[in-house]
Model the fold of this input.
Amino acid sequence: MDSRNCILILALLCACGCGQAASAPPPGPRVASIWVTRDYGKTLLRASRATPGQEAIKALERTADVSTAYGGRFVQGIDGLKGDQSRSQAWLYLINGVDPGVGAGDYTLHPGDVEWWDYRYWANMISTSAAIGAWPEPFLHGFDGHKPRVEVGGLSCAGDIAASLRQDGVRTVQGSSPYAVHVTTFANAPGDLGEWQGRGLTVALRHDQVLVYHGARGMIPDPSAHALIAAYSPTGQPISSVTLVVAGDTEQTACAAADLLAHHPSAVKRTYAVALDGSGHVVAAGGQP
Done:
């Protein structure tokens, strides 16, 4: 690992010390959640509840066996699974599906937060600014306790997603917002979907072709894919701006993907991004073997 990559990962995973025992997590929606997965969410290793008001690293330490390096500032291992520099495997984390931009010792959990640790290949994908697999996050609880107002637009079937979000408690608005969900066709999709490394995308779109991230092999076209669901930060600041795009090669395929997200969100749970066939069935999840 070169010094630049080391600095970037340390910034993501900075963690300080261990705290005193916390009270039992509260019941209901005020509880925070901890997910521990590997391979871009493919395998769930641990899921538990955590008490809001504590540092993310302390919440992790109270639910799992955590080992650190670099003077306690780097999460080296969770439950015996340790980072492997020779294979470019490391633990990275998200809060409500977005890159928090601070270490786990510097983020305080809020009610409803999802703290997601994933053991994954990082050499050509150090940071993924946003992942769809904590849906309806980050649109419900946002970041650092600040709930966003969410723009939902595009094709008429976007109304199903808006209704689903409102049912979950999300505040949707007319007009533009830094947090947005767009349902569209490939022809009208944002060009950002082609910048897979710059945007940290594990499913991308290039020349109307869906590409799926496969770790060290990079992006590979998937001829069975006719739609995608992916999220990213247009400004590069995911804590303040997130766009989730549902796009298809036709309006019908885009709306089939929108229907899946609105009515069957468990199909994308703990994924970073997905590729779908023309009927709205997931055919691949970005980064997963």
User: Anything to note?
Assistant: DSSP finds five helices and 17 strands in the chain.
